[in-house]
Automatic annotation (TrEMBL):
The keyword Oxidoreductase applies. This is SDR family oxidoreductase. Belongs to the short-chain dehydrogenases/reductases (SDR) family. The lineage of its organism: Bacteria, Bacillati, Actinomycetota, Actinomycetes, Mycobacteriales. GO terms for molecular function: oxidoreductase activity. InterPro entries: NAD(P)-bd_dom_sf, SDR_fam.
Length: 261
């Protein structure tokens, strides 16, 4: 069991996908601990509203960066905009496309890969070296419980999150000797705008949590003296992820397909 230390209080945190859902809840939780914030998302008006709320409520400083992370070299562009030391990076931005792959739009898949994979790698590449040089910092890459099994009709999204999980686990090992922590946070279905896009049928892979539930899981991991390579939010989601690892694909995939139909 992880032994706890005092509550983690980063001086400055960067959160992507901060305009709503889990990202906005991360921003609120970190502001409540006194962290200044860099809030990144496409929707500038929502970022400004959130920044005003956090500054007035908690007295922290918030910088808003409206940026489309599907664009090439988004992490390097972000690092140019934010050259200061960042103590915590939360790679939360992402989206999904739910439909049979053969019915999908190639442009949608390209954007999904750009945001859910390329931007995560690029942002880690932009900010991790400075953390290692200072021997201080944490990166949280938000994956998903879909990372633990293929998911029909969410083929590209599930594969992207499997990449994020594997990538984060490797960085966890590489960064630990340098005093830097990296881990994947794996929520199950969560009450956010995500399901306005892909539909409620995706809850078949777990049970609904709230963004507050998910961020509370992450904050407990941040407070721990040592953090595992990945953290799953929710006991039922944890059990389902473990089960997915032992059920043969020939059994698992038809069952998932029926639930998601």
């Amino acid at each position: 069991m992880n032994r706890r230390t005092s509550r983690y209080r980063p001086g400055r945190s960067l959160v992507t996908g901060a305009s709503s859902g889990i990202g906005a809840e991360f921003a609120r939780a970190l502001a409540a601990r006194g962290s200044d914030l860099v809030l990144v998302a496409r929707r500038e008006e929502r970022l400004t509203t959130l920044a005003d709320e956090l500054e007035s409520t908690y007295g922290v400083r918030c910088r808003t960066v409206p940026l489309d992370l599907s664009e090439a070299a988004s992490g390097r562009r972000l690092r140019d905009i934010v050259p200061e030391h960042i103590d915590l990076v939360v790679n939360n931005a992402g989206f999904a496309v739910q439909e049979p792959f053969s019915d999908g739009d190639a442009d949608d898949f390209e954007r999904l890969v750009a945001v859910d994979i390329r931007a995560v790698v690029d942002i880690c590449s932009a900010f991790l070296p400075d953390m290692i040089g200072r021997r201080n910092g944490i990166i949280v890459n938000v994956a998903s419980t879909t990372a633990f099994q293929p998911v029909p009709t969410l083929a590209v999204y599930a594969a992207a999150k499997a990449f994020v999980l594997s990538f984060s686990q490797s960085l966890w090992y590489e960064s630990a000797p340098h005093g830097v922590r990296v881990f994947a946070l794996n929520p199950g279905p969560t009450h956010t705008e995500f399901f306005d896009v892909i539909g409620d049928s995706a809850t078949a892979t777990g049970t609904y949590q709230t963004p507050t539930d998910v961020v509370a899981t992450a904050m407990r991991a941040l407070d721990a003296r040592r953090t595992r390579p990945h953290v799953i939010s929710g006991r039922r989601n944890t059990a389902q992820a473990a089960l997915a690892g032992v059920v043969p694909a020939r059994v698992l995939l038809p069952a998932l397909a029926r639930m998601l139909h």
